[in-house]
Write the structure tokens for this entry.
Amino acid sequence: MKFDYSNVKAPWLSSYDGVPPVLDYTEKSMSEAVLDMAAAEKDFPALTFMGRKISYTRMAEEIELTARSFKALGVRPGQRVLVCLPNVPQAVYCLYGLNRIGAIASMVHPLSAVGEIVYYLNEADCDIAVTLDQFYAKFIEVCKQRPVSKLIIARVSEELPFPLNIGQKLMTERKFPKLAKDGSTISWKEFRALGARFQGEYVCKKDYLKEAVVLFSGGTTGVTKGIMLSDLNFNALALQTAEMSKENVHHCRMLAAMPVFHGFGLGVCIHTVLYAGGTSILVPRFNVKSYAQLIKKTRPNFIAGVPTLFEAITRNEYLDGADLSCLRGVFSGGDSLTIELKKKFDKFLADHNCSVRVREGYGTTECVTACCLTPHDKEKEGSIGIPFPDTFFQICKPGTCDEVPYGEEGEICLTGPSMMLGYINHPEENRNTLQKHADGHVWLHTGDLGVMDEEGFIYFRQRIKRMIVTSGYNVYPSQIENILEGHPAVQRSCVIGVPDPYKMQKVKAFVVLKKDVQNTPELIEDIMEHCRKHIAKYAMPYVIEVRDSLPTTLVGKVAYTQLS
């Protein structure tokens, strides 16, 4: 299928450099698209996990078995199932297995607190949950507050190569509680056995425009909401990402460190790769040392991460002397990449024999993940790039649907085939977020401030709710943070507004110093002097507080609300 946005301005088209502006999208479900690729690729590795290669044929068999197992449990088309797993093969099997029977995978962070998981179960109305044995004790507490009819417990050891599987099994059997014999808790082995015995029909011819996955918003501001996403949303993202990469992604290797409960991890690192016939190298838990070892061992073609990942790599010596010529794409998203960190990581790549630079993108979970990316051959300092094919951006006066002129700041609004169906149980939020403009199209109002220049390049400023108003002036924390991190002693920063009886708000800065830098009054004054050179007087921090670290959300963004 194709989309018609011919009545919408698109000044960025001249910067596409061969990327087709209009694409033809499949009407298949996510699982149909991946299983069709599996039929073609057969023995080529679809997944790599802890040194074990899983072929497309084996993955397809596991997806079909998982689908039959869920069907045997009575899971119906349209029913949501909580998938609370890290980047392990079982998460992939559950995603596509549920899709195969017309059900919906509700993906959540396994490190979520008990109360958060209870909230997710209620919000998505899930009666069945899947998790790992290492989180079983937590789910015992969850089920006391919010029972489920079936709790499926998988083990990492079940997908490890020999002899790692033996060692892992011996260690975990002693460490974690034994499964209750209550009829509601079953092991992954027992779950698979149900599917092996199931003889009935299980495949559902799914409507590709209907709900397929639920992802939860990151929760840096406001209430965490369940976001309903369709098969088309994910399949469109896969095709768009492949085209925007300007690389041959067939048979590529992607290091999947971004988690499967995150739009980038699930949509790009897993689905885009499998949709294109590549190999997704699953990273169940991020650790900079093991991540660096994986890069050297597996030599991926693509890596993607939040800025904290790139910062961690540059702060350590684990890739010293490594040859990174294998990399054909390095992508940053999920949070603002400061100009200073981009320069630092670009130099790091060049120093390690890599011919590409970091390409910053922008997106929201409301459109799965990235929908805007820096072109491969043209970047502008401070820009997050240009929209994907068939995706359109407008900058509107906040609180309205009125587009502002190029160069003027406003709310980032977007539309395209990856735009969500809506939030679960939040009708007012849906009305405020998904609005029909005068052109007849429904636009997603992101709540982010940005600017579009005359060539269509987008510049992210920050969340509208995060803007600081001091003495009537607008102050943008991300701009102050860019300046702070330009100081040679500052590793990371966060700027917030604090109440002030005279100014309404005043600016406060938190900084993390670089390794071996001593916190002294002289240093703080030097940082202040650096700010005075670059920041207007009204926007100057009244104080700089040094922290050992900054709080982060479950997906690695700075949780600035915790500093307020």
Remarks:
- The CA atoms of residues 69 and 543 lie 58 Å apart.
- Residues 56-72 form the longest helix (17 residues).
